[in-house]
Design brief:
Chain B: One of its GO terms (molecular function) is ATP hydrolysis activity. The complex is a heterodimer of chains A (269) and B (682). Chain A is an all-alpha fold. Chain A has nine helices and no strands. The C terminus of chain A is likely disordered. Helices cover 33% and strands 22% of the residues of chain B. Chain B has an eight-stranded mixed β-sheet with strand order 6-7-8-3-9-10-12-11, sandwiched between helices. The chains are: A mainly alpha (269), B alpha/beta (682).
Chain lengths: 269, 682
């Protein structure tokens, strides 16, 4: 893959994100330690990114919050991609009333703004990171299902699929060997964009108080807590906002590059 | 000799990166006289289309003309500005393409598209343009031209669209018409119509035609002179009659020998070993040397010069060079090289088997495949496409049944219906006394092993993400024949060897192979499960003649060795004559005539069979028949005509034909015809 400097930067940002998520909890940070002498302290020598309304260090909270966004981003994509691919594959392959039913259900979900549904679900299930993941996956599978169904429908008429049926392959094996590997490239690209979407959605839900609960840190609830002090201490919002922005941008850039990379390979073959 | 209409001298066209270009046309010389048909003959990738595009200066963005002169009468085409060239294109030089489907704009009416060409080149007033459009449509033989001019391309059949393309090319009264594979995408009966039309138009207008084709039969029937292209340059030029009587270049000879035909049945077809050289290479000797049966030492070191053999007949080959050749020329006269006789002779076993007429291995009776047509919100069924509408055939061990018909007649659907890859809606398919129709997937699986299929397109019929070894071993794994990978791979190596490929191929991906090699891999995949019957669905129609010969030889050998039964689905009657034992001719979902191959080909009884046979272009002058012209196109299988399906196009239809579908009449033990005429005469 050709790596120009934007892609290098994007990879670097993502590497830092993952490292923070993995190691922040074990290096002895104190993200929940209240320090009443440092309330709303601006960035400076005391702490690199300043302190929040309870005097907690913003930098430490940011690094620990990376863990939440990584877990949510990856798990939401993994669960929704797995469920969606399976459902879409079954729909495309079986046809008939099964396909018609699944297609209608997908349309129904598509007609509803996803984040609204996730808010409703998270509200019903109660706050907490596991419920956020479930709520986002419950609305996220639809995109993968629709994509997989379309891919399968376009691939199922190909001669090599017919040949596999003539050789006595079972339907499940045809799906696994002949359809999903060929539908993989667009799904992979959809998944990279899904990670970025999930990070934003988690921040959104936490901002509304449905995600990670205080005193634990997440980028979303850091923004929410900081909003009240926007005029006196803007660093409380800017730091987590910039983190979200950088991660989402980087994931999107790499997703783009990845798609181009796959396209080139297809052209060569 | 009068001055030529168009004169091309050492034309060189390059594609791609200038530092490492593909020389797709490399020093090409030709000239075409006014009013003559000049054919440019060659296999895919030899540069014939690029030559045509160079003449029109319509090269793709990465292409450029590096050297040469193209002179149309007194005009040097390569020196014209782009604006001047635009006046020539569609004016003094017209062009028609292979795919009429994609050459017309789907959102404009046919009349508008022709009118555009008329306006640009004739500068007539609006009212006159409409009149000229109708005149052009009438000239290309489109019935009811006023009405047709208002229709869109999708409302016309393929043959009609090609006529419209010709009408557009004629709009500027061209002196030269370049026809790039004009009939390759069309059925034989339609091809005969279009070729006849081109001939008639040429007689009326006196234009010259540059016909680009790979079909030797088309050349023999339509061209006056021809040039054979190989690897970017011309290797032989000759008047057509001379060429087919005495081809001079070894490549031309091989091409002619590799054509399948009835009289070659007992032997193998000639093949050309190796592949076409890459065009980015720098050639030191003859470009054909690596594949030539009569290669000499000098061929590899020196480039052969152009030699005039007889009047108007020249070749680029050392065999005709009196200094070099001498006694070597005699050896080259032997028509079949070592390749022709080397492997096992299928002839004897073939003859021995042909008398057996045991119980059929598989028999289909009244097979029907109807597809419902849904309409409206509730998806009610409003009709059926009768793709296959009562087909009865029998397959016997070691024999080949050819299922012949034009596109859309349901032959592929019939093949898939027999294998239960499409669920038939009626009739019966019995394999060894077991009814196959209605079996569930699970109950069908034991029979899958015996019934296999090979497809037309060797590119789409393999999963591009699977290794060749896994592709071939798929059936062994799926049916649990060889569960361990090591066993499977051992068997795969044997199979690759059987189809004439290096066992190393198993570790590579399908895209690394050429079309012919891929088709071998597909055959190996079908053979892996040791089938009794293989349905071959046009296995050679996507391949060049010389590669087709390899595949046909392979299929014939395998049949002799393994006693396979083939259901060979094709539209190519010369392949039928070479390979088949029995023939069934299909029209609009039904078999109209079936019998032994020689019975059908020598003495067709159904008017459709006669018309089909007469439309096939043949190389030998004395075997040519008068083309029986069929008017119109095949009707839609959703609304077949009343009575005999063929009667609206039948030149011999009489009053009974529109009223009832003719019963099958058994003429002999092997021969069945469905026609009122035969019932009448008996």
């Amino acid at each position: 893959m050709r790596l120009d400097w934007t892609l290098r930067m994007a990879s670097l940002v993502l590497a830092i994100w993952v490292l923070c998520a993995l190691f922040a909890p074990v290096v002895g940070l104190h993200p929940t330690k209240v320090d009443l002498t440092a309330i709303l302290a601006p960035p400076g020598e005391r702490s690199l990114l300043g302190n929040d309304d309870l005097g907690r260090p913003v930098l430490a909270r940011l690094l620990v919050g990376a863990r939440t966004s990584l877990i949510v981003g990856c798990l939401v994509v993994a669960v929704s991609a797995a469920v969606g691919t399976l459902i879409g594959g079954i729909a495309g392959l079986s046809g008939g009333w099964v396909d018609a039913l699944i297609a209608r259900v997908i349309d129904l979900f598509m007609a509803f703004p996803g984040i609204l549904l996730a808010i409703a679900l998270a509200g019903v299930m109660g706050p907490g990171i596991d419920n956020v993941i479930l709520a986002l996956a419950a609305v996220g599978w639809v995109g993968y299902a629709r994509l997989t169904r379309a891919q399968v429908l376009s691939l199922v008429g190909r001669d090599h699929v017919t040949a596999a049926r003539a050789l006595g392959r079972r339907t499940a094996m045809i799906l696994l060997k002949h359809l999903l590997p060929l539908a993989f490239a667009p799904l992979l690209v959809e998944a990279t964009f899904g990670v970025a979407a999930a990070v934003v959605a988690e921040a959104g839900l936490s901002f509304l108080g449905l995600g990670v609960q205080p005193p634990d840190a997440s980028w979303g609830n850091m923004v929410r807590d900081g909003v009240s002090y926007l005029l006196v201490a803007p660093h409380l919002v800017i730091a987590p906002g910039a983190a979200i922005f950088l991660v989402v941008l980087s994931v999107n850039l790499l997703g783009d590059a990845f798609r181009d990379h796959l396209d080139v390979r297809l052209r060569v073959s | 000799m009068p001055d030529p209409l168009i004169q091309v001298q050492s034309l060189t066209t390059q594609l791609g990166d200038p530092s490492h270009p593909l020389r797709v046309v490399d020093g090409l010389d030709l000239h075409i006289q006014a009013g003559e048909t000049f054919a440019l003959l060659g296999e895919s990738g030899c540069g014939k289309s690029m030559t045509a595009l160079s003449l029109m200066r319509l090269l793709p963005p990465s292409g450029r003309i590096a050297a040469g002169v193209v002179r149309l009468r007194d005009t040097d085409l390569l020196r014209l500005t782009e604006a001047e060239m635009r006046k020539i294109r569609g004016g003094r030089m017209g062009m028609i393409f292979q795919e009429p489907q994609t050459s017309l704009n789907p959102v404009l009416t046919v009349g508008d598209q022709i009118a555009e060409a008329v306006r640009i080149h004739e500068g007539r007033s609006r009212a006159q343009v409409a009149g000229r459009v109708v005149e052009l449509l009438r000239a290309v033989g489109i019935p009811d031209p006023e009405q047709r001019a208002k229709e869109f391309p999708h409302q016309l059949s393929g043959g009609m669209k090609q006529r419209v393309m010709i009408a557009m090319a004629l709009a500027g009264d061209p002196e030269l018409l370049i026809a790039d594979e004009p009939t390759t995408a069309l059925d034989v009966t339609i091809q005969a119509q279009v070729l006849r039309l081109l001939k008639d138009l040429q007689r009326q207008t006196g234009m010259a035609v540059l016909l680009i084709t790979h079909d030797l039969g088309v050349v023999a029937e339509t061209a006056d002179r021809l040039a054979v292209m190989y690897a970017g340059h011309i290797v032989e030029t000759a008047p057509v009659a001379d060429f087919f009587a005495n081809p001079a270049h070894p490549y031309s000879r091989k091409l002619l020998e590799s054509l399948p035909a009835a009289e070659k049945r007992s032997g193998r077809l000639a093949v050309i070993p190796g592949r076409v050289p890459r065009l980015d290479a720098v050639f030191h000797g003859c470009r054909f040397a690596e594949r030539c049966a009569s290669v000499m030492d000098v061929c590899r070191t020196r480039t052969p010069a152009w030699l005039e053999i007889a009047n108007g007949h020249g070749a680029r080959c050392f065999l005709w060079d009196s200094e070099v050749a001498g006694e070597v020329a005699k050896a080259a006269e032997t028509p079949h090289g070592a390749v022709g006789t080397a492997s096992l002779s299928s002839a004897t076993t073939d003859a021995a088997r042909s008398d057996e007429r045991g119980a059929p291995l598989l028999s289909a009776q009244g097979l029907q495949v109807h597809f419902p047509i849904h309409h409206g919100v509730l998806r009610r069924v409003v009709g059926h496409v009768r793709a296959v509408d009562g087909v009865s055939i029998e397959l016997r061990e070691g024999r080949t049944l050819a299922l012949v018909g034009e596109s859309g007649c349901g032959k592929t659907t019939a093949g898939k219906g027999i294998l239960q890859l499409i669920q038939p809606t009626g009739g019966s398919v019995r394999y060894r006394d077991q009814e196959l129709i209605g079996l569930s997937n699970r109950r069908m699986r034991p029979f899958r092993k015996d019934l296999q299929i090979v497809f037309q397109d060797p590119f789409a019929s393999m999963n591009p993400r699977m290794l060749v070894g896994d592709v071939i071993g798929e059936g062994l794994q799926a049916l649990g024949i060889a569960k361990r990978r090591a066993d499977r791979m051992r068997r795969v190596a044997e199979l690759l060897d059987l189809v004439g490929m290096d066992p190393e191929a198993a570790r590579r991906y399908p895209h690394e192979f050429s079309g012919g090699q891929r088709q071998r891999i597909c055959i190996a995949r079908a053979l892996a499960v040791e089938p009794r019957i293989i349905v071959c669905d046009e296995p050679t129609s996507a391949l060049d003649v010389s590669v087709q010969a390899q595949i046909l030889n392979l299929l014939k050998d395998l049949q002799a060795r393994l006693g396979l039964a083939y259901l060979f689905i094709t539209h190519d009657l010369s392949v039928v004559a070479y390979l088949a034992h029995e023939v069934a001719v299909m029209y609009l979902g039904r078999v109209v005539e079936r019998g032994q191959v020689d019975e059908i080909l020598d003495d067709p009884r159904h008017p459709y069979t006669s018309a089909l046979l007469s439309a096939v272009p043949v190389v030998e002058q004395d075997k040519r028949r008068n083309v029986i012209r069929l008017d119109g196109d095949m009707p839609s299988p959703s609304h077949p005509p009343s009575g005999c399906y063929f009667h609206p196009r039948c030149p011999q239809s009489f009053e009974r034909c529109p009223h009832s579908y003719p019963e099958e009449a058994r003429l002999s033990e092997t021969r069945v015809v469905s026609c009122h005429l035969t019932a009448e005469t008996r």
